[in-house]
C-alpha cells in the first residue's frame, strides 16, 4: 500500500468540516496513521509550496494558510495518492464534481486563491517530502 499527506486547510477547519472530511477518508477504507492540528509556519509553507514560488497566487496562498490552524494527516491505503485526489475533486470548488469533497462542500472561490478545503500529495516522492515537512 501507499501513503499520502492530507491537509485540511484553514477554511475546512474554520468551517467545522474536519470530522466530515476525515469521515470520508475512513469510510473509503483508508487508514489514518498520524493526525494533528498545527499552525503552519512560513518556513513549512515555503517548503510545501516551493513549486509555486513566483506564481501570482503564491503569496495569497501562503497568507491564507497562515490565517488559521490546519489539520495534517498521514493516510495509508491501496493507491491512496490518486484515490484521495479523486475524492478531493478538481482545484476549483466552483466546478468540482458532486460527490467530491470540493464539489460537495467547497464554496469559497476567488481570483487570488482557491480556498478548496484540502490538499493531497500528487506523487510518492511529494508524499514523502511533504510528510517530512509536516511530521518531521
Ligand atoms: P490540485 O492540483 O488538485 O488543486 P493542489 O492543492 O496540489 O491540488 P496545486 O496546483 O498544487 O493544487 O496548487 C496549490 C493550491 O494553490 C491549490 O490547492 C489552490 O489553493 C491554490 N491555487 C492553485 N492554482 C491557483 C490559481 N490559478 N489561482 C488561485 N489559487 C490557486
TrEMBL record:
<protein>
    <recommendedName>
        <fullName>Nucleoside diphosphate kinase</fullName>
        <ecNumber>2.7.4.6</ecNumber>
    </recommendedName>
</protein>
<dbReference type="GO" id="GO:0006241">
    <property type="term" value="P:CTP biosynthetic process"/>
</dbReference>
<comment type="subunit">
    <text>Homotetramer.</text>
</comment>
<dbReference type="GO" id="GO:0006228">
    <property type="term" value="P:UTP biosynthetic process"/>
</dbReference>
<dbReference type="InterPro" id="IPR023005">
    <property type="entry name" value="Nucleoside_diP_kinase_AS"/>
</dbReference>
<comment type="function">
    <text>Major role in the synthesis of nucleoside triphosphates other than ATP. The ATP gamma phosphate is transferred to the NDP beta phosphate via a ping-pong mechanism, using a phosphorylated active-site intermediate.</text>
</comment>
<comment type="similarity">
    <text>Belongs to the NDK family.</text>
</comment>
<feature type="binding site">
    <location>
        <position position="91"/>
    </location>
    <ligand>
        <name>ATP</name>
    </ligand>
</feature>
<dbReference type="GO" id="GO:0046872">
    <property type="term" value="F:metal ion binding"/>
</dbReference>
<feature type="binding site">
    <location>
        <position position="116"/>
    </location>
    <ligand>
        <name>ATP</name>
    </ligand>
</feature>
<feature type="binding site">
    <location>
        <position position="85"/>
    </location>
    <ligand>
        <name>ATP</name>
    </ligand>
</feature>
<keyword id="KW-0963">Cytoplasm</keyword>
<keyword id="KW-0479">Metal-binding</keyword>
<keyword id="KW-0597">Phosphoprotein</keyword>
<dbReference type="InterPro" id="IPR001564">
    <property type="entry name" value="Nucleoside_diP_kinase"/>
</dbReference>
<keyword id="KW-0460">Magnesium</keyword>
<keyword id="KW-0808">Transferase</keyword>
<keyword id="KW-0067">ATP-binding</keyword>
<dbReference type="InterPro" id="IPR034907">
    <property type="entry name" value="NDK-like_dom"/>
</dbReference>
<feature type="domain" description="Nucleoside diphosphate kinase-like">
    <location>
        <begin position="1"/>
        <end position="136"/>
    </location>
</feature>
<dbReference type="Pfam" id="PF00334">
    <property type="entry name" value="NDK"/>
</dbReference>
<dbReference type="GO" id="GO:0006183">
    <property type="term" value="P:GTP biosynthetic process"/>
</dbReference>
<dbReference type="InterPro" id="IPR036850">
    <property type="entry name" value="NDK-like_dom_sf"/>
</dbReference>
<feature type="active site" description="Pros-phosphohistidine intermediate">
    <location>
        <position position="119"/>
    </location>
</feature>
<keyword id="KW-0546">Nucleotide metabolism</keyword>
<feature type="binding site">
    <location>
        <position position="57"/>
    </location>
    <ligand>
        <name>ATP</name>
    </ligand>
</feature>
<keyword id="KW-0547">Nucleotide-binding</keyword>
<keyword id="KW-0418">Kinase</keyword>
<dbReference type="GO" id="GO:0005737">
    <property type="term" value="C:cytoplasm"/>
</dbReference>
<feature type="binding site">
    <location>
        <position position="102"/>
    </location>
    <ligand>
        <name>ATP</name>
    </ligand>
</feature>
<dbReference type="GO" id="GO:0005524">
    <property type="term" value="F:ATP binding"/>
</dbReference>
<feature type="binding site">
    <location>
        <position position="9"/>
    </location>
    <ligand>
        <name>ATP</name>
    </ligand>
</feature>
<dbReference type="GO" id="GO:0004550">
    <property type="term" value="F:nucleoside diphosphate kinase activity"/>
</dbReference>
